[in-house]
Design goal:
single chain; about 120 residues; mainly alpha
Length: about 120
């Protein structure tokens, strides 16, 4: 026998009081924490395993020395060592030689050469 169509729609509504809401919040919070803690533990374990592998490579293959050499190679172009007094005197003697002055004059750089010497106090 076929079912007849409904003639009316009845809506049921469930309302929670303050006490039930607090209990539901506790259940939701507990559920969230119980799912989040294993994820944090897994992330910490992966980080610890990576650090252990790094330390192993340092000990077995001397990775530490290689890393230090790479770091020195990277930072060395940016390190400026101050000139010694002997180096400054050698530069002054070389720049003040007649041969250098003639070369600068011939190449039309004499004015820039003089300005550079004044700027650096040479």
């Amino acid at each position: 026998m076929p079912k007849s169509k409904p003639t009316q729609v009845i809506t049921h509504r469930i309302e929670l009081q303050e006490k039930e809401r607090k209990m539901l919040e506790q259940v939701v919070m507990t559920n969230t924490i119980s799912k989040g803690i294993p994820a944090l533990i897994a992330a910490g374990g992966i980080g610890l395993a990576g650090f252990g592998l790094y330390m192993f490579l340092q000990e077995v293959y001397g990775f530490k020395d290689t890393a230090a050499k790479v770091w020195d190679a990277v930072k060395s172009p940016f390190t400026i060592e101050p000139l010694t007094d002997e180096q400054i005197e050698a530069i002054r003697a070389n720049q003040e030689s007649e041969e250098n002055k003639e070369w600068y004059k011939d190449n039309m750089l004499y004015e820039m050469y003089e300005g550079t010497m004044d700027a650096f106090g040479l």
